[in-house]
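Figure 6 in text form: structure in, sequence out.
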């Protein structure tokens, strides 16, 4: 029996072995400041740019200069929303299920009269393109932000369609791909203007991520705070070891590997879901559409989710009540609200998010533990 059955990958993942090696090596060999002028610093700068090229290649981007390294997806998302607003793109359309950091950036700096929330279909948790098409057609939108995959339900979003729609109309499009990159095939991002990624969502270590900048705005883009690094696009001494860890982790799984993993893991997840649906009568969320292969979210039949999480934890299982950011604050999740759950149902939601190699036996063990806990709770 493992010490921990880990089913909270959408919150974070442990750093992978190869990423850790690359992180240690960069710390030992390339600790110099890439902005300094001596030889070692030059080598660190070269190394940083080499990782940038590898990442660009992995994402199918033609221009590595489009990538700036950040402290994570929160920073990247804030930077792009702030930049849209600073450059007069005030009529931002963003989905009702965006991560809380996108919502907070829009609410903090945007004008509530001008921004628009794109609704989702309640059965699938997928963005409804019809209103977005109408708004864009009527010339009412200056910029669009729609995530690639939702962190709570795992629902895959139509980011390729939105990218094409925005491109046709010359509207900048941002996609927060923090949950997609590292889990799904990621080699075709060239058609998206602005992209966000986060290392700790794919075993690449915490405190590192990236923003891909629109080709057309490369010379114009300015970062959130002042400073010369990354050509003035992201201030602060570059975290080369973290970048090395991040890109190594991402390169460790090709698109073919990810497609194989998706096939195996989604079957295990589906079997798990069938078991808990039959035994407990849970209501699955977003299962009407395509989802990340590792994610399952459902409404429990009774008793607040915190109690289930705590009983699972006592048995060695780590699961979540929803997005770590929302659940920590006790605010109702925007995603659940957008999918039409009432307050009581929101308090009974569990999110399960497995790893790339979660064995079938661990999925079985989790289903078994849920059935046991249900009996315990019923007996109270
Ligand atoms: N965007 C999405 C979709 C996420 O799931 C998360 C993490 O929960 C973030 C952004 C924030 O990422 P980071 O922890 O790198 O700031």
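Output sequence:
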């Amino acid at each position: 029996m493992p010490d921990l059955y880990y089913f909270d990958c959408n919150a974070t993942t442990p750093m992978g072995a190869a990423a850790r090696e690359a992180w240690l090596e960069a710390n030992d060999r390339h600790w110099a400041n890439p902005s300094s002028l001596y030889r070692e610093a030059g080598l660190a700068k070269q190394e940083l740019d080499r990782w940038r090229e590898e990442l660009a290649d992995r994402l199918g981007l033609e221009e590595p200069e489009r990538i700036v390294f950040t402290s994570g997806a929160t920073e990247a998302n804030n930077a792009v929303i702030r930049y849209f607003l600073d450059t007069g793109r005030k009529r931002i359309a963003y989905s009702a299920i965006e991560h809380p950091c996108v919502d907070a950036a829009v609410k903090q700096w945007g004008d509530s009269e001008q921004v628009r929330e794109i609704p989702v279909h309640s059965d699938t948790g997928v963005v409804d393109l019809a209103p977005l098409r109408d708004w864009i057609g009527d010339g009412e939108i200056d910029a669009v932000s729609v995530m690639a995959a939702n962190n709570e339900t795992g629902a895959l979003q139509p980011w390729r369609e939105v990218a094409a729609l925005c491109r046709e109309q010359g509207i900048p499009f941002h996609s927060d791909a923090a949950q997609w990159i590292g889990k799904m095939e990621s080699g075709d991002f060239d058609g998206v203007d602005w992209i966000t990624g986060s290392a700790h969502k794919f075993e690449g270590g915490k405190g590192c991520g990236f923003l891909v900048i629109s080709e057309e705005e490369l010379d114009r883009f300015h970062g959130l705070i002042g400073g010369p690094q990354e050509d003035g696009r992201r201030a602060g001494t570059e975290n080369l070891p973290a970048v090395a860890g991040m890109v190594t982790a991402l390169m460790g799984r090709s698109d073919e590997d990810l497609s194989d993993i998706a096939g195996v893991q989604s079957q295990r997840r589906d079997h798990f879901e069938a078991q808990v649906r039959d035994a407990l009568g849970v209501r699955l969320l977003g299962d009407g559409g395509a989802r990340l292969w590792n994610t399952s979210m459902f409404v429990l039949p009774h008793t607040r989710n915190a109690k289930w999480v705590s009983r699972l934890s006592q048995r060695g299982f780590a699961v979540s009540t929803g997005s770590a950011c929302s659940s920590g604050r006790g605010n109702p999740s925007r995603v659940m609200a957008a999918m039409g759950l009432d307050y009581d149902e929101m308090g009974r939601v569990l999110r399960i998010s497995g790893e790339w190699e979660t064995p079938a036996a661990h999925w079985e063990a989790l289903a078994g533990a849920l059935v046991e806990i249900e009996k315990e709770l019923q007996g109270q």
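Caption detail: The mean pLDDT is 95.
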